[in-house]
Structure formats: structure tokens, C-alpha cells
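Lab notebook page, bench 4
Experiment: in silico fold of construct C2
Operator: M.H.
Input chain length: 296 residues
Purpose: comparison with the prior construct
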Amino acid sequence: MEQKEMSRILEKAEILVEALPYIQKFNRKIIVVKYGGSAMSNEELQKNVIKDVTLLKLVGFKPIIVHGGGKEISSWLGKVGKESEFVNGLRVTDAETMEIAEMVLNKVNKSLVSMVQELGVKAVGISGKDGGLLRCDKKYVDGKDIGFVGDIREVKPKLLYDLLEKDFLPIVAPIGLGDNFESYNINADDAACAIAKAVSAEKLAFLTDIEGLYRDVNDKSSFISRLTASQAEELVNSGYIGGGMLPKLMNCVDAIREGVNRVHILDGRIPHCLLLEIFTNHGVGTAIIEDNEKMI
């Protein structure tokens, strides 16, 4: 065997050895993956994410996928002549938009189920309506009614526990039920955070369209690979974090405070970012940890 080929094989073995302690540590632990952004609209990246989550399942993790579908919803609204309108990043959702959003999210949901099962893992696609998983109130933005947009009031995770116990991989569409059993469109980040807290997840991973957190977005050398929940709160209060990252970071801190052990912000455009973050010593994104956890 040529030296070059032997070196390549040894490198693979070293990667597997590096992953071993992480596999042992997180065996049978729940990890919630919020899946959205560009990684959903690119077929190759989509397959990579599903392969990552499937591998996590096969090595002993208990993953739950919570997915978005905003870009596809906007596309379908355009096909019927409706223009998408947003307030503070939330889609204004009238009755017709809600009907289309639910149709599209269910379509995305079953597509992900098919991809997982093609890789030999049992998956079940549900929405927050199934089993009363996500109960909602109407969300108002600065006192403004933006339609059928849900603010999660309660999570009943029994269905998720039942599916995990039966060795299924749950895939959740962010649609909830109101008190009168009407459908509500829920921000997928909010849904993932609420579910992670309800099941006391070991990890919550957000797949986004950015590399992670920067102290200064214009300075690539200010990248933050690890920070505590208190440090994250300081960043929020400092005013350095803005745009769509601000509510995401607040969700991360809230999840840590409510019992999730570690939250990861990852660039879903990087192939196999989930595996690289969880199974390697340095990772590729930003990890937010408990205040008393050792910073590594």
C-alpha cells in the first residue's frame, strides 16, 4: 500500500478515535436540531444534514428535528399571487396564508421523513398539532395583530417520548393549536427552543446561514467559539448583536437557563457541520454553555 493511501486511512482512524468519547458521553441523550435556512433549499446540503442526524441516531443519540420552511412558503405564496409580509422577522399570516403555510410545511415534513427512511432509520413526521404537542396563544408584535402567528404557551412532550422510546426519529413541523383548535404558524426557532426545554435536551443545535457569533460582525478575528450563558446575555445587552441573531441568541440563553445543557449555533452551509461540532475537539460553530461548565 502506498504511503499516501496509508496516511489517508490512518487519518480516518484518528477521526473515529477522537469521536469516541463524545459518542460515549452522549449515548441515549436527546439532541434537538433546528433545521432551516439555506441548508434546506440546497439539495446536497439537505442530504448532508439528514445523513448527519441519521448517523447521530445510529450511534446512540436520540435526535429530534424541528424544521422551518419559510423560503418555500414564500415561493408558494408567490405562485398564488400573495406577497409575503413580515413584522420583526415574523410572517404576517392571514387565514389563506396559514392554509398555504400548513400545506407547505407538511410537504417539507414528509420529504424529510422519506430522506431519513431511505438511510435505514425509522422516522415519523408530526406537527405541533399532533398529540397536543404545541399549544399556542396569538402572538402580538408591539401590540399589532399579525394573524395566525403562535406564541407557545405549553409543550406536551409525551408523543415525542413515545416515539423516541419506540426507536423512531421525530420530525416536527412548527404548527400549533389554539384554544379553539385553530392552526397557528410558529417561528421554528421558538418551537425548537420550547421543545428542547420540555424534553430536557442535552443539546440544541441551530443550523443557520452564518458561521456563528462574532463580537464584531465586520471582524472575522472576533469569532466566538465558546461562551457561557451570562456572557451571551452581556452580548445581548451590549447592543453588538442585532438583526435576526438577537432573538436567536436570546432563545439560546433561555434554553440554557431552562435546563438544556449546551446550545450550538452552526453554519448549515458547511457540509456535515453537525458532526464536526459534536464529534471533534474544536468544532466549527459557537457553543453556549452553562455558567458553571468548564470552558474547553
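Observations: The mean pLDDT is 88. The chain has ten helices and 16 strands.
Next step: discuss at group meeting.
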